[in-house]
Each structure stands twice: as C-alpha cells, then as structure tokens.
Amino acid sequence: MSAPAHYAAAGPGPAWPASTRWTLHGSIVLRWILFCVLALLAACSNEVTLQSGLNDGDANEIITLLRRAGITTEKVKNKDGVSVLVDESELARATELMQAQGLPRRALSHLGQVFKKDGMISSPLEERARYLYGLSQELEYTLSQIDRVVVARVHVVLPERVAPGEPVKPSSASVFIKYVPPLDEDLIVPRIKRLVSTGIPGLSEDAEGSKLSVVMVPAQAVDQGLQWRRVGPFVMEMSSAKDFLRLMTWSIIALVLVAALVAWQWARRLPAVQGLLAARFGRLKTSA
Predict the structure, then answer these.
(1) How far apart are CA 256 and CA 47, in angstroms?
(2) What per-residue confidence (pLDDT) applies to 16?
(3) What is the 3-state secondary structure (H, E, C) of the chain?
(4) Are 19 and 273 in contact (CB under 8 A)?
(5) What is the radius of gyration, based on Cα positions, of the chain?
(6) Highest mean pLDDT, choosing among 18-22, 61-65, 89-93, 241-245
(7) pLDDT tens-digit profile of 240-280?
(8) How many Å apart are CA 45 and CA 72, to the nearest integer?
C-alpha cells in the first residue's frame, strides 16, 4: 500500500499523515483484542454432555454436587428433558463424584403406577409380580430418604399360596444400603429392620437373620488429587487455570482501554473532530 500522491513528502520515501498512522495502529490493537477475546471464548466453550434426559430435581442435585466440588456446570432444557454440561477436562472427575453419590437416582415407581388400569385382564402371576415390584419400589423410596443414603435396594419374597392345612411359610426380605460415611450402623440398622418388617406382610420385626437381612456398604471416597482444567490449547492445574483466566480477563480489559485511548487520539486528529472540539470549548470559554 502506498501513500496518496498529495501526501508524498520531498524525502526518499512517502510520508504518511498522522491520521493514517493512527488508523494503522488502532487496527493492529483491535486485531489483538479480537484474538484474545476469541481465545478466551474458545477456552470457556469446550463443553460436553454429562447427563441428558433428566428431570429438574435430578439435574439440580447433580449440579449442586458438582459445583460444591469446584466443577462448572451448565443446565440446558430440551424436549427430552434436562441436560447437564461440564467442561471436557472435568468429565472423568464429575462421573466419579456422581457414582460415589449414587446420582442420578434410579427412577422408582409407586403402587399406583404399577397397578394402573390399562384395560387388560392380568393373570394372578402377573398381579403377584407387579405387587412385589411395587412393594419393593415403595420401600426403596422410603429408605432413600434417610440422610447420607445414596442407594437403597429391597428384595421381597412372599410365600406362595398353600393348600388348606399346610403350614404358611413366612415372608423374607433383603435390604442393601449404600451410604456416605459417617453413619452409625448400630443405630440405623434396627430402624431399617423395623421399617421393612412392618411394611411387608408376613414378616415380623423379630424375624431371624435368614428372613430379614440388611447389608450396609460405605461408598468409596473419591480421591480428589490434583484437579486439572483445559484452557484453550493448554491443560493446567485448577488453581493455575483460574489465575490464568483472571490474567486474561484483566489483559483484555487493559487492551480495551488502550484501544479506546488510541481511538480517541486518532479521532482528535481528524479535522471534523477538531472543529467540533474547537466549537464546543469555544462556546464554553465564551459563556465563562
């Protein structure tokens, strides 16, 4: 690009006017600002879907857990339900945290849903299977409301109908509880037995161990270790990544201020702006 003929100087090369030089400088600064903004957006937009098809309750529970662990999440609603998005570098740690807490919780059915009238006649065997399933689901839902319980499973066995005169076999049940320590098993196991025994017909609270068993399993703690995060093309430790993003933010702010200063200095050298400033300050001096 060469200077216009009327801007040429008598020297060995063309002489650029001040307004053109400021225009070139401002263009370079604006390009650097655009590059930094795009790099920052690219560092913050590398997200993947962690879970999809959730309801609001399950999604909020997952988001609360992950944000307490320092993982940034995003909640997106669509026609299939709610999706939870996380940064790609946090996918493995988020999955481990969810598994340790038993999230998302298994969808449970209550007796009203199991025995919903659908206009078809069920056989006695089907009715019995549905009754056992609904009874187990109701007990699992109740046990899952206990604090620090993340997974609750109940398996119920009811005796078959016997002929008149034959002894009636008692019912039996087995309960599996996965919990997050600390939890006093000596205190909670008798309460679970009392709850289950009174909720299953034919099972007494003082049943033998072979008729009602409760297995308590503590959840394994997730080893946090070093937390990594991807920032653009770089992978760095979490605290360093936060400092880097903070530095990038302040750098962009500084560049914007410099660009504004450059634009102002350039604008002051335009004849039209000079005329407006002279007229403005001239009126102020006259009124003073």
Answers:
(1) 27
(2) 46
(3) CCCCHHHCCCCCCCCCCHHHHHHHHHHHHHHHHHHHHHHHHHHHCCEEEEEEEECHHHHHHHHHHHHHCCCCEEEEEECCEEEEEEEHHHHHHHHHHHHHCCCCCCCCCCHHHHCCCCCCCCCHHHHHHHHHHHHHHHHHHHHHCCCCEEEEEEEEECCCCCCCCCCCCCCEEEEEEEECCCCCHHHHHHHHHHHHHHHCCCCCCCCCCCCEEEEEEECCCCCCCCCEEEECCEEEEHHHHHHHHHHHHHHHHHHHHHHHHHHHHHHHCCHHHHHHHHHHHHHHHHHC
(4) no
(5) 35
(6) 61-65
(7) 777 788 888 888 888 888 888 887 777 777 676 666 666 66
(8) 11
Query: Hey, what are 148's tokens?
Result: 């620090």
Dihedral sign, CA of 61, 65, 68, 71? negative
Q: What is the pLDDT of residue 7?
A: 43
pLDDT digits (tens, 9 = 90+) for 14-50: 554 544 544 555 566 566 666 666 665 555 557 899 9
Quote the CA–CA distance of 194 and 204 in Å, as a whole number: 9
Answering whether pTM is above 0.90, one says no
Is 28 in contact with 258 (CB distance < 8 Å)?
A: no
Could you tell me which of 107, 106, 56 has the C-alpha nearest to residue 84?
56
CA angle 277, 278, 281 (to 5 degrees): 80
Closest-CA residue to 29 (of 275, 194, 259, 230): 259
Instruction: Dig out the tokens for 116 from the structure.
Output: 């919903």
Euclidean distance between the first and final Cα of the chain, in Å?
48
Closest to 188 (Cα-Cα) out of 148, 139, 151: 148
Q: Which residue has the tokens 């102020």?
A: 284
What whole-number distance in Å separates Cα of residue 76 and Cα of residue 253?
Answer: 30
Structure tokens at 121: 């006649």
